[in-house]
Design brief:
2 copies of one chain form a homodimer. Chain A has helices spanning 41-58, 63-92, 96-119, 169-177, 190-206, 223-230, 243-254, 282-294, 315-327, 337-351, 379-383, 405-414, 427-432, 434-443, and strands spanning 7-9, 12-14, 20-21, 24-25, 30-31, 36-37, 126-128, 142-148, 152-155, 181-184, 214-217, 236-240, 262-265, 272-274, 306-310, 332-333, 355-359, 369-370, 373-378, 396-402, 418-424, 444-449, 488-494, 515-517, 520-522. In chain A, helix 2 (63-92) runs antiparallel to helix 5 (190-206). Chain A contains 14 helices and 25 strands. At the A-B interface, strand 7, strand 8, helix 7, helix 13 and helix 14 of A face strand 7, strand 8, helix 7, helix 13 and helix 14 of B. Strand 22 (444-449) of chain A pairs parallel with strand 23 (488-494) of chain B, so a sheet runs across the interface.
């Protein structure tokens, strides 16, 4: 498969601009060979025009048609094989194993959304039947179902070149419900994005989807993204990245003449509370956490950035073991020089107020090593330094020593919103700490008992999104089939003739869906 | 029952400020006797502090307890009897019949949410069970359910002193899910609000709800509302009113350090399309629409402000009948001098480009009559004057004459988002107009066939909310039990010990709820 360096606008490749940029290989410390064309303002506008036009047709496609489309994308990505995985590695410095895992997850997500289309439950068909005899006013027939909101812009994520980029969760969930997608590719991995783009283009053509159902635009500056978010044809935005980036896009979108929903999944330090009772398994937790902190060079939104420990006689043993376990792990490369630089800057900030207590093994062959680092600080120093509460993107964890649970509670209360909160302990210990659990719950989207926050299961019961700034709207999730809800709005049909109702609402229930009829779930 | 003129802050009445204001009786053209105390900044802060404190307790209350609380409010409002209804009339100029109807709706809404708590479906319990044998990574147990987001501010609506004010839909839906509420009472009906406040206060005390679960603050200026929306303890806002008011609050909320959801239900002109085939029932539609336009002096968000007619031989007869029907209806008072003034100002704007073709009967005994008025304009004049697209709040409808459906389609496309869109015709006529229907659907939250947009059925399948500026987030509804979704966020519990899970997620399903377990609905 030829690697295209143009932008894809609907079914056409386009490179009208004169500006180019290259991605970077952090392992070889050199630019990758391909020169990608920066999309111009006119190309951006053409993409949004095509998306708006495509929406008219695409929203009318059947569940079955869109399911086929998603499955074709999955198949075409599979067919890209080693070419895709090798390109992924060249642009991220990540290992082949990670490339394979992330590719499998991307394909699994597409298939998961295809399955959700097979079941059609996401339409949430709700029917209240008429009662012409009701007095004083006869009751009308009302039938409601979810409809796609319109063209969506998806920003590729630096840390998930496949699973949260071109054909990742945001794109797949929007395409699933009938929204055309324009991807603003992440400039760190345009070649990976270009290959996946080809897979989507071919799938769209194979399954008869309209020109404009998908576009992929490249740029290494902010202007393109700003233009996309401000374009009146765009009706929603998906973003995974930094708090500053996500907040800027969110503000732009809210200040439009017609504000639109922006689902930005941003920073998180994922607090972990180690209750004294957990330290009976001190060795096993130390091992799990040394591994969780350094997984993927810590470049995960669920990385455990804060570990709160309650003072107890076994704590020093736990810390010693953690230190030892960490020292056996070799540093891997970070994704990009700029991410490495900002990691080192964040580390320097932490170092001003906290003490380094352990590091992973250095690796002198790397130009941009993400060296796993654990710092320690006492609770009152932590409480008085809000900069220590902020995420340092990379393999860094700050261990905060608290005298007791009472000292910890106001600290948890003062944290910003988080994706996850974890408690290590025993069930009897949790019983003693119910107030702590309540406070932690108020700050997070997912509560974990005796586990690590890394590893986000893609399933219906997953909530990946928490109070701001973990995400811009905690009422939605970025992972799992419920992420489709971000791009849907209900429409009610009142006394609408049965033959013109959408299939999901017809009296005969031709799709065989579960429907809420007069407040009872039924398939009749 | 004594009518209190203080603010209610949790369980305490408070009147620390020196500023006072009175409501106005448009029928007598005089101020009402009571002097209400404007809430001070300190009182406002105390209310949000109490609400935040109350949230800790209130979110833990059971479905049953909150259901009792809502039913007690409904009962206490019922017990207020004629005193409440008479006060309502004194502050609104509306007739006793409307007072009774709106009171019944308010009570019905409270009971509807109480019923929703009995069923517990709004929790949407979703469970994905563990699979320890899964390779390469064992699958964790994940259980998700909806939780309240925190204290909500509700702005009372000028046009619904009961059903969308103190204990109206916004308040009832928020209280139902476990969110404390602070009402910023509408300054046009503080006495009505004060009586309902007493009903809520008593219900809270009767059913053991925490101090701060509800507060009611009075003010006749903007500052109080702005302070409330910007207070970091407030986690969501419900508003019904003008586009300018709703947009201003929305922007304030989005520019907070922590942005919060604002559900504002704002302006709508509720386009109606009269297909030629509808005019076989010309007389009956003329009667229905003369009545719909003037209902409640046109002071409804679903008032039919635009009627698009396709030229045909029967059109002039329809217009003549509409004119005649309208002339038999006597004008009623508008809610307030300021609403009357702005209606007359809007009418003058319409008059610059359109021709008056019919009016309701004048009523010289009224100081602020809302005189039903129908104007006519041709399609191209309408298309070229965007000011004609805007809502005139009151009994005014603009009839737009179009040559054919092709001329109408781009006009509908150019309209802003709307709460409703209506088509009058036959099923065979709809078949011919499928493109028109699609375009109309893209602009609205509710599609109506052969009916009037006024009359909003309170039921599960109702969608009351449309693309901006009909509402700020068309993904939610302001009416019906699904309006509870505005104040909920999902939380996932990962590997959480069964005994500490919320009831709705426990293995034994003690609440007997329908739950989505491994993607299957079941009560097991």
């Amino acid at each position: 498969m030829e690697l295209r360096t143009e932008n894809l606008i609907g079914f056409d490749y386009s490179a009208k601009g004169s500006k180019k940029f290259q991605s970077f290989n952090p392992l070889t410390n050199a630019s990758n060979p391909w020169e990608f064309s920066v999309a111009t303002a006119a190309e951006c506008q053409l993409a949004t025009q095509k998306a708006a036009k495509a929406f008219e047709i695409y929203q009318q496609t059947s569940l079955k048609d869109r399911s086929k489309f998603l499955r074709a994308i999955a198949q075409n990505i599979t067919d890209l094989g080693p070419h895709l995985l090798e390109t992924y590695c060249l642009e991220s410095g990540l290992a082949m194993g990670r490339a394979q895992g992330e590719c499998a997850r991307t394909i699994g997500q597409l298939e998961g959304f295809a399955k959700a289309l097979d079941s059609g439950q996401y339409l949430e068909p709700t029917i209240d039947t008429a009662d012409p005899s009701r007095s004083p006013i006869p009751k009308v027939d009302l039938r409601k179902l979810n409809q796609p909101i319109g063209p969506i812009v998806v920003f590729g994520a630096s840390n998930f070149p496949l699973a949260y980029s071109t054909a990742g969760g945001d794109t797949a969930s929007a395409l699933a419900v009938g929204c055309p997608v324009i991807v603003k590719a992440h400039p760190m991995h345009p070649a990976t994005g270009s290959l996946v783009t080809t897979a989507i283009l071919q799938a769209a053509q194979q399954t008869g989807m309209p020109d404009g159902v998908f576009s992929n635009l490249n740029s290494n500056t902010f202007e393109l993204g700003q233009q996309l978010v401000q374009d009146p044809r765009i009706k929603g935005v998906g973003f995974t990245g930094s708090v500053s980036g996500g907040t800027a896009l969110y503000q732009l979108a809210q200040n439009r003449t017609e504000p639109i929903p922006v689902f930005a999944e941003m920073g998180s330090v994922n607090p972990v509370v180690v209750l004294p009772e957990a330290l009976d398994q001190s060795d096993s937790w130390a091992k799990s956490y040394a591994s969780s902190i350094t997984l993927g060079s810590g470049q995960f939104c669920t990385n455990p950035g804060l570990i709160f420990c309650i003072e107890n006689p076994k704590l020093d043993t736990f810390i010693e073991t953690l230190k030892k376990e960490l020292s056996t792990i070799e540093a891997n490369s970070m994704l990009h020089p700029s991410i490495h630089k900002s990691f080192e800057r964040g580390r320097a900030t932490v170092e001003e107020n906290a003490t380094l207590i352990g590091q992973s093994k250095g690796n002198e062959s790397l130009s941009y090593p993400g060296r796993g680092s654990i710092y320690q600080v006492d609770a009152s120093t932590f409480a008085n330094n809000p900069r220590l509460h902020q995420e340092v993107f990379g393999p860094l964890s700050l261990l905060v020593r608290c005298q007791n649970i009472e000292e910890l509670i106001p600290i948890i209360q003062s944290l910003e919103g988080q994706l996850t909160g974890t408690i290590l302990g025993t069930t009897s210990a949790i019983k003693q700490a119910s107030k702590l659990v309540e406070v932690l719950k108020s700050r997070v989207g997912r509560l974990i008992f005796n586990g690590v926050p890394t590893g986000v299961e893609v399933c219906t019961a997953m909530q990946h999104g928490g109070p701001f700034p973990a995400s811009t709207d905690p009422r939605f999730t970025a992972v799992g089939v419920h992420s489709m809800k971000r791009w849907l709005r209900p429409i009610s049909y009142q006394n609408w003739p049965d033959e013109f109702l959408p299939e999901a609402l017809k009296a005969s229930n031709p799709l065989g869906l579960w429907r809420l009829i007069d407040n009872q779930w039924t398939k009749n």
